[in-house]
Design brief:
Layout lengths: L2 H7 L7 H15 L8 E2 L2 E5 L5 E9 L7 E8 L5 H21 L4 E7 L8 E8 L2 H9 L13 H12 L7 E8 L13 H11 L1 E8 L12 H9 L2 E6 L4 H9 L3 E9 L5 E4 L4 E4 L3 E9 L9 E11 L2 E12 L2 E5 L2 E5 L5 E10 L2 E2 L4 E8 L6 E5 L5 E7 L9 E9 L8 E10 L5 E6 L21 E7 L5 H5 L3 E4 L5 E2 L11 E7 L6 E4 L14 E5 L3 E6 L5 E6 L7
Helix pairs in contact: 1-8, 2-3, 3-4, 3-8, 5-6, 6-7
């Protein structure tokens, strides 16, 4: 069983140091390391938080059976009546120190003794504090009962000397004096020490006293005048009454398990996180649990988004770790650029806007700069930046300056925001398609007979009785010369398609003579206007068809339109 269980049940009276040592070995095995993550539950916290958010977790810290970094002084009354008690400690000192070493970290031990006024060795430190347990055991082995005049002894002097540093206390140690004797003390003692001054000196030294009243059958009792219980109580130690000489070692171990221990949480490397606790520290009896409410907060700073933070919280006593907790906090950064896809009619709407929503774990982030770049497409190279508003939104407006074929195509637009950890930016891409779905305007207009210099009409029909027509096409995107080059003429009688012809003169139109003859073979031949010098220079093509003509112009986007050339039939 553990020390705390022994002490609380008074089981020290029925155990031997060897039995206690065995119990401690089992306890240490079940606890794992004296100080480690096994002593903190839960030992790890992993959460995702946005700037401004917090997470609360309950932490249970199991304290060691003996406070860490103890400086333990064995202080013995070595007057003549103490032989049996001294022999008990000498026989079991090694086991006691081994048991302590199993239950705590970095223990130091010391051996000191006192007698009575008039004895040649009134107070003596046989071994200053050391990790060398063999040396301490050797020093204890030198103790021998002797001397002692009247019944009271000189313990107040010895306790004061130890408090003042005769044992050479370490900085930040848990200071304990395990004191056993069978008689009350002089008050004042040999150096003028009183009960009050002794308690004051021990308080300054922050030394706790385990007082063991040995029932030797000779002294008046260590607590006969109330000194021992008062000192133990005032220093946060413990008092054991009426211990037989062979129970002293048990009582020392039991007393070490009743010492107070103060646990303080100490975060390390947690910035920029703010780690707070419901209390700065708590003092309990060693071996008991301490419960903390821990709050992990990410400051409300949007620039913290985009990082993972790993840190630890050590639960310390006297500056020594008795347990460790690991904290992992992910502060995500997300960007969503919208619309994912969009399509604009280039000639009607050359402007486009995209919005970027920047969030962390679903919470909008204000004040972050979003950089926008057009990575590819007709507007590649355009860029801009803007800061997110309170809703986490930033926008990018741009205009397609080319309302012509070079402005058609798909832009790939990227929005990026910088991460706090310096890793590559968080980015999102969308596309914008610039399209042309508007067909050109195709015209087949009656024009003059080059010879008659007039535009004859067939009465009431809207037809050009001589069959001369001007073909043209215009478009909101595509240039006229490209449209002219695309024009075809279809004989609506036979379905024969002629062309596309070319306007070699570059006059922005095509002049044709169209003759309708139901019995003719549909044909097209170049005229003088198309470089044939033997023909009239005003006409580009002469087309003979079985029916009316249909002019079709197609732009570079594949849009097309038609115009009918109404041609009279030849006279019978």
């Amino acid at each position: 069983m553990s020390i705390s269980k022994l002490s609380k049940s008074k089981a020290w009276r029925i155990s031997t140091p060897v039995a206690i040592l065995s119990a401690l070995i089992l306890h240490a095995s079940s606890m794992g390391a004296v100080a480690g993550s096994d002593n903190v539950n839960p030992s790890m916290v992993s959460v995702t938080l946005a700037p401004g958010q917090s997470h609360v977790v309950t932490k249970t810290v199991t304290t060691p059976e003996i406070p860490p970094k103890p400086d333990i002084v064995f202080l013995a009354d070595t007057t003549g009546s103490m032989g049996s008690a001294i022999a008990n400690v000498q026989a079991n000192a090694s086991a006691v120190m081994a048991a302590v070493a199993l239950e705590t970290t970095d223990p130091f031990f010391s051996a000191a003794q006192y007698r009575d006024e008039g004895d040649s060795s009134l107070f003596k430190v046989d071994q200053v504090l050391t990790t060398n347990q063999v040396a301490v055991n050797t020093a204890i082995g030198t103790w021998a009962a002797g001397g002692g005049g009247d019944t009271p002894e000189d313990q107040l002097h010895a306790l004061t000397r130890l408090a003042d540093g005769a044992a050479v206390w370490r900085t930040g140690s848990s200071r304990v004096i395990a004191w056993f004797g069978d008689a009350s003390g002089h008050d004042p003692a040999s150096g003028g020490e009183t009960l009050a001054s002794t308690i004051a000196a021990l308080a300054v030294a922050e030394a706790r006293v385990i007082a063991i009243d040995v029932d030797s059958g000779f002294g008046d009792g260590l607590n006969n005048t109330g000194q021992a219980a008062a000192i133990a109580s005032a220093t946060g130690g413990s008092f054991f009454a009426n211990a037989s000489p062979d129970e002293v070692s048990d009582a020392i171990l039991a007393g070490l398990g009743l010492l107070p221990i103060t646990v303080t949480p100490v975060p390390s490397g947690c910035g920029p996180l703010v780690i707070t606790f419901d209390k700065a520290s708590e003092t309990v009896t060693s071996g008991e649990n301490v419960v903390f409410e821990e709050t992990i907060t990410v400051p409300n700073d949007p620039t913290l988004a985009g990082q993972s933070i790993h840190c630890t919280v050590e639960f310390q006593s006297n500056g020594e770790s008795i347990g460790e907790q690991s904290i992992w906090v992910e502060i995500p950064l997300e960007i969503d650029v919208t619309p994912d896809t969009a399509s604009n009619e280039l000639s009607n709407d050359p402007d486009h806007t995209v919005d970027a929503l920047v969030t962390s774990f679903g919470s909008p982030l204000a004040g972050l700069t979003v950089s926008f770049d057009i990575l590819s497409g007709p507007n590649v190279g355009q860029n801009g930046s803007s800061a997110t508003n309170v809703s986490g939104l930033a926008d990018f407006d741009y205009t397609n300056p080319n309302v012509n074929p070079s402005g058609l195509g798909t832009d790939t637009i990227q929005g990026c925001v910088a991460r706090a950890d310096g890793e590559p930016d968080e980015c999102d891409t969308v596309t914008k398609e610039w399209v042309d779905t508007i067909p050109p305007v195709t015209l087949c207009e009656a024009t003059v007979n080059p010879h008659g210099k007039k535009e004859p009409q067939a009465p009431g029909t809207g037809q050009n009785e001589d069959g001369f027509y001007k073909l043209s096409a215009t478009d909101n995107i595509w240039p006229e010369d490209q449209l002219l080059a695309s024009i075809t003429m279809t004989d609506m009688g036979s379905g024969t398609v002629f062309g596309p012809p070319l306007d070699v003169n570059g006059d922005g139109m095509i002049i044709i003579k169209y003759t309708q003859d139901e019995d003719a073979i549909p044909t097209m031949k170049k005229m003088g206007g198309n470089g044939n010098k033997s023909q009239g220079t005003a006409v580009d093509y002469h087309i003979i068809g079985n029916g009316d003509g249909l002019a079709t112009a197609t732009d570079g986007s594949g849009n097309h339109s038609t115009a009918t050339c109404l041609v009279p039939k030849p006279p019978k």
